[in-house]
Write a structure and sequence with these properties.
Strand content: over 45%
Number of strands: 40
Shape: rod-shaped
Number of domains: 5
Mean pLDDT: 89
Radius of gyration: 51 Å
CATH topology of the largest domain: Immunoglobulin-like
Number of helices: 3
CATH class of the largest domain: Mainly Beta
Largest sheet: 5 strands, mixed
Strand order of the largest sheet: 18-25-24-21-22
């Protein structure tokens, strides 16, 4: 019986001496080279030690290990012995991300699409950026802004970024002095008044000119923009209107009444001449009772001066004949409440013009020998009849009843 007990005891200790520990490790996630440290916790039984490239204690540093596959060893020791197991951990390389210099950006400029980041497919972050890739200068104003470009590798999920400063430059301070009105017959002149110097003048949004010719652009209100671009490429402009006034047509003198002459053209100032001497009279009508002579007139409107009219000789019966260089013309009946006949002699062909009392041309007609103005053509009012040939002219007043 004692012998049996001794054998059983020896067999029990033999089993304990040969027992094995069940040791385990992993799995590990794929890591990014720039993704920060990773704490190793998957070794079993707990309490063992980790070792391998990039491992300090239980911390694995992907940046220290570098991209690639690295063997991680877990070692466990107890009273029965020392045991270990090994498992690889994958470290993926960080993408090589760069961000190039930005173009010139100006205050109040148009939005710009950002495409300076590489590899393409990343997103831009920073002030003034909308839709991940569009920068709006007017949303931030003048200044220096840090833009960050972030790219994530779609295969590994690893990301990296690059930064670059973007400068929003101020627009130049541009001014243009006001233009004084000019006349349509003025000679061409160089446009000035824009500052800073070195800009360009744009007329009506289309024509870039430095030498401005009023006779080319004509009487009207013209928009002049002065556009200046500074050394960094930012532009600004200033605008002023340039008014070109029409020079009045050359007037003619006609009898308004038996003792009064009238200038055919309306205007602001009227310069009358009698026998080539200035008459102290600045109105459209001039009284000439008992003042026989040769009369001329020149009209100024909006600062623009007409040519001097052809001479008109006063002293003959009203609306019958004109002497010297004038055409012999009869207008009858006058006054009229119906058709008006115009007859003339000394010439074969003439140009007939009919003006209202304000000087507006009602119609013009080439005629030979005579002409009838039908009743419905002219409503009631006072009109000026002007007849002109290649060498002669005459005028008469017509009253329609």
């Amino acid at each position: 019986m004692r012998s049996l007990l001794l054998f059983t005891t020896l067999f029990f200790f033999s089993i304990i001496g040969f027992a094995q520990v069940n040791i385990g490790l992993g799995p590990f996630p794929d890591l990014c080279e720039n993704g920060g440290t990773y704490t190793l916790t998957s070794g079993t039984p707990t309490g063992g030690l980790y070792s391998g490239n990039g491992v300090i204690g239980s911390i694995f540093n992907p940046a220290a290990a570098g991209a690639g596959s690295h063997a991680i060893t877990y070692t466990y020791t107890d009273t029965s012995g020392t045991y270990d197991t090994t498992l690889n951990i994958i470290v993926n390389a960080a993408p090589n991300v760069t961000l190039g210099a930005f173009p010139t950006v100006c205050e109040e400029g148009n939005p710009i699409g950002l495409n300076q980041g590489s590899p393409i497919g990343g997103i831009y972050k920073g002030p003034g950026i909308i839709f991940n890739a569009v920068f709006f200068p007017d949303s931030v104003g003048v200044g220096l802004y840090t833009i960050n470009y972030v790219y994530t590798d779609p295969l590994t999920g690893c990301a990296d970024s690059a930064t670059q400063n973007l400068i929003v430059n101020p627009k130049p301070n541009v001014n243009l002095v006001a233009f004084s009105p000019i006349c349509s017959d003025q000679q061409a002149f160089n446009l000035v008044g824009g500052t800073p110097n070195g800009g360009i003048y744009i007329i009506n949004g289309m024509d870039t000119v430095s030498n401005f010719d009023p006779q080319v652009f004509g009487a009207d209100t013209h928009e002049v923009n002065y556009l200046f671009t500074d050394a960094v490429g930012c532009s600004s402009s200033a605008m002023q209107d340039l008014i070109i006034n029409e020079v009045p047509d050359t007037p003619f003198v006609f009898p308004y009444a038996p003792d009064t002459l009238l200038c055919s053209e309306p205007g602001d100032v009227f310069e009358w001449f009698k026998n080539d001497s200035i008459v102290p009279q600045t109105t459209r009508k001039i009284a000439v009772a008992n003042q026989d002579g040769v009369y001329k007139v020149r009209v100024t409107k909006a600062g623009c001066i007409s040519e001097v009219s052809a001479p008109y000789t006063y002293g003959e019966p009203f609306s019958v004949k004109e002497l010297g260089s004038n055409i012999e013309m009869n207008v009858f009946p006058n006054p009229s409440n119906g058709d008006v006949r115009i007859m003339f002699s000394d010439i074969k062909n003439a140009n007939l013009e009919v003006f209202d009392i304000a000087g507006k041309l009602i119609f013009s007609q080439s005629i030979a020998n005579g002409f009838v103005i039908e009743d419905e053509v002219l409503p009631k009012g006072t009109y000026i009849i002007k007849l002109t040939s290649s060498t002669k002219t005459t005028t008469q007043k017509l009253i329609k009843l």
